[in-house]
Amino acid sequence: MAFAQTQRRDMWWLQPALVALGLTLFGVYATWAALQGEHYRFGPYLSPFYSPLILLDWWKFSPAILILWAPLGFRATCYYYRKAYYRSFFADPPACAVGEFRGEKYKGETAFPFILQNLHRFFFYLAAIVLCFLWLDVYEAFRFDEKFGVGVGTLVLFSNTLFLSLYTFSCHSFRHLIGGDLNCFSCGLAAKTKYQAWKGVSVLNQNHMLWAWISLFTVGFADLYVRLCAMGIINDIRII
Ligand code: FES
What we know:
Elements: H1 14-36, E1 41-42, E2 45-46, H2 64-76, H3 79-90, H4 120-140, E3 143-144, E4 147-148, E5 150-151, H5 152-168, H6 172-179, H7 189-205, H8 208-230, E6 238-239
Antiparallel strand pairs: 1-2, 3-4, 5-6
Helix pairs in contact: 1-3, 1-8, 2-4, 4-5, 5-8, 6-7
């Protein structure tokens, strides 16, 4: 089948086009924000792009660069995003039952560079560690000069970390980690416990794409919110 040839009569191109638009907008904003190296902190709020904050005397660039590669690697190797950007950016294939665009030497994920997608499970461990720091940031966002309080920024950081957690723990690799490597789900207490945990993760996993997109939006929005507050463009409303 020639490239883009299909018998489909629906608007099959719409979804890959929207995905390309969404990922491009996020990519441009995230790159810009990560390279700024300033306005990432306001009061007890820390932008998720800069967390955990690593400040080193000898590092002359933005501290976000020291940490962002981990969550970026996690997203870039995510099973869902792979499908999304293979379709949207590589037209491989552009959609189901639509002719694809690729050379004869294409070997998919069996050869370099796409064989590196297999690192996803290791990026999961790193993303889980980063998530712990983001929850610490949420804890800090409730403390205003040692007093308990809630600001709009607190809610923004809380909801972002919640959705990032849903995204992280709905991961296919995590589902395998929880329930894989078993031949029998009912053989013994440990296997039964793993089975129950696997069922719980499977419920989250069913909406992995949804968590992927919501968390992509919230993490960008959380950075933007902290940035606008730090730049003095908006005021953070608080109850202390
Ligand atoms: S499969 Fe998407 S984060 Fe693991």
